[in-house]
Structures are given as structure tokens and as C-alpha cells.
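hey so u asked for the seq, here:
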Amino acid sequence: MKILVTGGTGHVGAAVIKELVKRNANVRALVRKQDASGTMPKGVEVFVGDLLDPVAVGKALEGVDKLYLLNAVVPDELTQGLIAYDLAKKMKLKQIVYHSVFKVEEFKDVPHFASKLAIESALREFNLPFTVIRPNYFYQNDASLKDAMMKAGVYPMPLGTPGISAVDTRDIAEAAAIALTSDGHLGKTYNLNGPEILSGKKVASIWSKLLGKEIRYPGEDLDSFEEQMRQSAPSWSAFDIRMMFQGYLERGFVAEDGDIGTLTKLLGHAPRRYEDFARETAEAWQQVAEPQLVGSAA
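ran it, C-alpha cells below
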């Protein structure tokens, strides 16, 4: 049984590959650059190609039984996803596990949500065995906020109130690997949510405790948030992410009844808590900020 993983160099895709290797799966990773092979676990086959190239994707799918389909948030995400899906359908794969997003049908005005909804619709309409995973916002997104919190003392993500049921990428990876390597998941859709509701103020208070300093939550000025995003991301991406957070505030992004129980049963353990992720991250930041001296001075 061979499994092709797309997006294997990203945080989630790399974690999925790690979980598949733990389960002794035969894994092939589709990557855009050959140097990515140096970051793959031992035994993972690396195929270099672009998801926008149907010829390359077709070759990557040769001899493959299952596909984990994860697309980056890019302007042509829908095209990339449908190329992979259409070729998988043509080659009659035994299963696609598609990485979608929580409440995708309620966020049709968010570009990357709309792309995922269209791909989900294709999965459901045509005759190919599938499983859909729908993760919430990732805890690990906040690992990029070191400067904002350590230097400026601000948690800038506009989570609002009541907040969201964010999830750990390690739980996402486990769920995907389980769906790919065990029975009983065909036709299923799994909402992947964390065990608590995280508001902006609550997250800021968690970081305040862990960092030993006040971390402020500035509120939900989405115009300013989008403008700040444009300093480090393309304008289209800043707008896309702004619309996602605007949707969180307008429509909510909190786990539905039964979601946590279903995920706990799937994983065989309770979903990881945000505070545990934050503690690990804060400790790593502080170790870098205060390197340990080796040896002693005379």
C-alpha cells in the first residue's frame, strides 16, 4: 500500500508523513524542489513536481494506492486540487484523504475556503472513495508571533469573542494518518477541533502567564490587521486571511456538538490543549533568547 502526500514540506504535511512512517506506511512525497528530500524521514520516496503540472502529478500517482491531498493557500489552489483529484479519479485510487477546513460551507466569501468547498463538492459528486478532514485554525500559526509578543507585548490575531476551537497540527497529522492506514473511514467527514474555546483575551492571558509579562490583546480592527499583514505577505493573501478572521467574528468558529468526542475516539486520546503548545513554544523562545553557557570561566 503506497500513499502519496502533497504539501509534505509544510508544517502539517511533514507531520502527516512522520505519523505515516510511524505506522510503517510506504510513503511518497510530491515536492517542488529536490533539496526537500534532505528533510524527509528515512525511507520516504521523494518525487519532484508541481501540482499545476498534470504530467508530473500523473507520474507521481503511478503505483500509488491512496492520496493525502493538501494544497497550499495560493491563488490557484482550486486548479491544483482539481488536477490532483481528477488524475486520482482517472487512476482509480482506493482513497483520497482531503485536507479541507472547518465550517467550509459557511465561509463562501473567503477565497481559500471557497476553493476547498469546490474540491469537496467534486469529491462527493464523483465515484472515488474519500475521507475529508476539516481542521480549525492551527495552534502552530501562533509560533510565528514571537516578535509581536516578546518585543511588542501584543497578541495580534483577532480571534474575538467567543473565539475559536483551534487545534494542534499534531492532532491533525494523527487523524490523517489513521484515516489513511485503518479501516472504517471511507465517506466520513471529521471536524478537527481543540478541546477549548480560545478568545483573543484568553490567549493573551495564557501567554502573559507563560512569558512572565503582560501580553495585550488589541481587539478586532481588521483594517489595521490587513494593513499589517501586507507588510509580510502578498496583498491577495492579506485580504484572504482578513476575510477568514472577519468570518470568525461574524459567524463563529467553535466546535460543534460531538466534535471533541469524535476526535478523541479517532485519536485514542484527548486533543492537545493550547496551553501545552504555548508552554512548549515559550520555553523554546526563551532558550534562544537566553543561551546556556557551556563550560566555565577561570
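The first strand starts at residue 2 and ends at 6. Residues 235-251 form the longest helix (17 residues).
lmk if thats what u needed
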